[in-house]
Amino acid sequence: MVMLTDAEQAMLDGASGAATQKAMELLIRYADALGAERFVETNNVAGVPGSAPQWVKDYYAADGGDYRAVFSRFDLDSDEVVDVPRMNAFSCHLQGGMDPMLWQEQGMTEAAHDNFVSDEAEVAAHGIQILKTCTPYLAGNVPVMGEHCAWMESSAVVFANSVIGARTNCEGRESTSAAMLAKRIPDWGFHRDDFRKGQHSVDVRVPVDSVFEWGMLGYFVGDAVQDTIPVITGDISEASLIRHKHFGAAAASSGGVEMYHMVGITPEAPSVETAFGGAPKGERFVYDAAARKRIYETLNSVGSSEDVDYVMLGCPHYSIEQIAQVCALIEGRKVSANSALWVFTSRAVKATADANGYTKILRDAGAYLMTDTCSAISQAVPKGTRVAALDSAKQVHYLPAMMGIEGWYGTTADCVEAACTGKWKGRLA
Questions:
Q1: Geometric angle at alpha carbon 307, from 306 and 310, rounded to 5°
Q2: Kind of pairing, strands 39-41 and 184-186?
Q3: What phi, psi does 17 have (nearest 5°)?
Q4: Would you say the pTM of this structure is higher than 0.85?
Q5: Phi and psi at residue 79, in whole multiples of 5°?
Q6: 10 Å Cβ neighbour count for 243?
Q7: Widest CA span of the chain, in angstroms?
Q8: At CA 391, angle to CA 340 and CA 389, rounded to 5?
Q9: Which pLDDT tens digits describe the chain residue by residue (429 residues)?
Q10: Alpha carbon of 100 to those of 132, 140, 310, 322, 387: distances in Å?
Q11: Is the four-CA dihedral 8, 12, 14, 19 of positive or negative sign?
């Protein structure tokens, strides 16, 4: 049974209003299910509170079918509909279902767009930051080492835990929505020191020195260790934000990794002994030339036709550095009439891209810089897409299966070349 502080008991008794009371009731059930004995305080929450497609609102039509009804019934699992105040914790909204400006190009209906706009107004009115991205750390929400957070989105969670050293489990819609009101989350899992220690070893014996290579290594690691914590050593160089972003997203998709240690690179792994909390333990996995080749073949096992209809870049959402790289590759060229190129980022990063002329470079080439979503989240691809090319191991893991299409994995340069020629020419060097 979770123990409550006086402040938490007061919230449970209704001192902070009915919505916060319902939030505490949900969080107590959650803590008891986890076996957590107490809560930690958090002032950094990332989720998708209250937003819903029209069919969900129709389901709650008897309760008004509005934001208030959805948040009460769906987010707080409440038996009654309560008034929803502005959130108490610093909170941000993660990616949504469409680009609010390019929704027609994505094939969305006007009704779906109107619902999206209405939801967004409600989110903002409740004090939730409209970041609309899977990379909140690129759009203004950057926790510090040791900070307790409550985040959804697997790629953001693994980045926060591993690269920043913040503390969050991979939360769900209900727990994050409740945390926005109560500023609490169960003290369990990655919030605790003892849970953050390495469980298996990964020895890297081939050079990992590009986003492409980091993505493949991430996919190997996730597949090997599943949902445990790897301690990675070996031939890894040129660490950067975007490389960690792609590594973590791949590891989270192939195996459910929520934290990793790279010895001498990530902040909680200055040594092997520190990363493990003592001597190495668990299994030892080797990433060598044979494993690299196997992972590449796995990622490209859903591709057969070399005719590429669609190239998607931006999973996780592209940084301004990556957008600049794509522009350098495509400036002066044109997307093939037989293909399409969509690049996804956050609104915040797109504003910078606009100012730097990158959005215009892409449009002049026949490409689109889109925000707020990706093809896996929106399930939107150009009409007639049969074959896609991607530079994200995470996206090639999900999108072909979700959309019933073929998929190729390669470098960003491979993908831009495919967009401009309509042909896949990527190969493993």
A1: 115
A2: antiparallel
A3: 105, 165
A4: yes
A5: -75, -10
A6: 23
A7: 65
A8: 40
A9: 899 999 999 999 999 999 999 999 999 999 999 999 999 999 999 999 999 999 999 999 999 999 999 999 999 999 999 999 999 999 999 999 999 999 999 999 999 999 999 999 999 999 999 999 999 999 999 999 999 999 999 999 999 999 999 999 999 999 999 999 999 999 999 999 999 999 999 999 999 999 999 999 999 999 999 999 999 999 999 999 999 999 999 999 999 999 999 999 999 999 999 999 999 999 999 999 999 999 999 999 999 999 999 999 999 999 999 999 999 999 999 999 999 999 999 999 999 999 999 999 999 999 999 999 999 999 999 999 999 999 999 999 999 999 999 999 999 999 999 999 999 999 998
A10: 11, 20, 21, 22, 26
A11: positive
Q: How many separate helices (H) and strands (E) can be counted in the chain?
A: 17, 15
Inter-residue contact 308 to 423 (CB < 8 Å): yes
215: Cα within 13 Å, side-chain hemisphere: 22
Concatenating the DSSP letter of every residue in 94-126 gives: ---SS-SSSTTTTT--HHHHHHHHHHHHHHHHT
Give the pairing of strands 200-208 and 128-130: unpaired
Residue type, position 129, single letter = Q
From the list 298, 296, 285, 280, the residue with the least C-alpha distance to 204 is 285
User: Do 13 and 22 contact (CB within 8 A), yes or no?
Assistant: no
Report how far residue 250's alpha carbon sits from residue 257's, in angstroms, rounded to the nearest whole number.
9
**Torsional class of 13: left (φ above 0), alpha (ψ -120 to 50), beta (otherwise):** alpha
Contacts of 427 (CB under 8 A, 6+ apart): none
Enumerate domains of the chain plus CATH numbers.
6-193 (3.30.499), 198-299 (3.40.50), 310-421 (3.30.499.10)
Structure token digits, residue 209: 């020195």
What residue type is assigned to position 86 of the chain? R
CB 333 within 8 A of CB 365: yes
> How open is the CA angle 170-171-176, to the nearest 5 degrees?
145
